Amino acid sequence: MAARSFVSLAAGFLFGLGLTISRMIDPAKVLGFLDVAGNWDPSLAFVMGGAVAVAAIGYRLAGARPVLDAGFHGAVRRSVDRPLVAGAVIFGAGWGLVGYCPGPALASLGLGRSETLIFVVAMVAGMGVHRLYEMQAVTNLREKSEEV
Fold first, then answer.
1. How does residue 1 score in pLDDT terms, banded at 50, 70 and 90?
2. Whole-Å CA distances, 68 to 6, 51, 52, 65, 107
3. What 3-state DSSP class applies to 145?
4. Is 90 exceeded by the pLDDT of residue 58?
5. pLDDT at residue 114, rounded to an integer
6. By the 8 A CB rule, do 44 and 30 touch?
7. Under a CB-based contact definition with an 8 Å cutoff, are residues 58 and 64 in contact?
8. Cα–Cα distances in angstroms (integers) from residue 30 to residues 34, 68, 99, 120, 135, in the given order
9. Among 37, 17, 55, 20, residue whose Cα is nearest residue 96
């Protein structure tokens, strides 16, 4: 268990360091990348391409399974449904409006910018609202199944 915790900490640190070095924690840099019709800055495409290449090599070396666990823990549903599309649209709109997504926002908290803190607080609040919504949906489903 200690090895998994250490590897998790090291991977998170490496991820945050990569975000910082590539300037993905700078909303202006991200918004420049997203502005394909204006003053486009393609440099973050190289960051993403490098990340995909490193992940592909690691995946290949690990034999398509994690080294410190029995398997990957990902999404269990494979269908594209309305909640998935709505979430993607909301995520994209938020990313395009302010230049932050969750990982870089958390990494940039250390810079002490008030707008980053506001974004993270709003993000956590949104996650809480979603959790309450999901819990209510499960409760409603149980009540309906008990009626039958």
1. low
2. 11, 21, 21, 9, 25
3. helix
4. no
5. 93
6. yes
7. no
8. 6, 33, 5, 17, 34
9. 37
The pLDDT assigned to 4 comes to: 83
Extract the tokens encoding 144: 């309906």
Percentage of residues in the chain having pLDDT higher than 70: 98
Mean pLDDT of 29-36: 90
Torsions phi, psi of 100, nearest 5?
A: -120, 145
Neighbours of 59 (CB within 10 A): 13
Task: Give, in order, the Cα–Cα distances in Å from 66 to each of 4, 5, 28, 48, 91.
Answer: 11, 14, 35, 22, 28
